[in-house]
Amino acid sequence: xxxxxxxxxxxxxxxxxxxxxxxxxxxxxxxxxxxxxxxxxxxxxxxxxxxxxxxxxxxxxxxxxxxxxxxxxxxxxxxxxxxxxxxxxxxxxxxxxxxxxxxxxxxxxxxxxxxxxxxxxxxxxxxxxxxxxxxxxxxxxxxxxxxxxxxxxxxxxxxxxxxxxxxxxxxxxxxxxxxxxxxxxxxxxxxxxxxxxxxxxxxxxxxxxxxxx
Length: 213
Fold this sequence. Notes:
Layout lengths: L1 E4 L8 H15 L8 H9 L3 E6 L2 E11 L4 E9 L8 H16 L4 E6 L2 H10 L2 E3 L8 H5 L7 H6 L8 E5 L1 H7 L11 H23 L1
């Protein structure tokens, strides 16, 4: 298995990447923004993506998006092909794209929004912290990317302040300051995030039901 920075020579994998992302979104029933093959190829050509290959077989993918004039960076579209899941590959891909993002955009804040506990845990171990949506980019282009998510109406109802996703942020400036004083690393509390997700689902779906009645 190799995880490398993708380039235009990997364009032939764009179609299966898009199919895998869309199928995963259907299974999870939550938001993974759909992308076109052309969009994926563009990321590859700019060196803003990593791909995992088992020989010539596609295994996983993730790409970089930049917002607010490169002040914010998102590692998006993290996906692992069903044949290679439950092997720790998602974590390995995330590590590679995270380090690539830090080298290419050293001053940028790296963020993400997700409903997946596995991704939250990986982010947390990399140094991300849960934040409110107000601490993320206010670039409208980013939030438009959520339009293909089934929960987009929740996001619009709350004026981009809250959704079923959890926002997480890695701030390189804060990391510089906290390095001077080492603190015991707290453990990721998946039960707490599960409760948060359940509260959000109950809150928004209950409100939706009331509005329909």
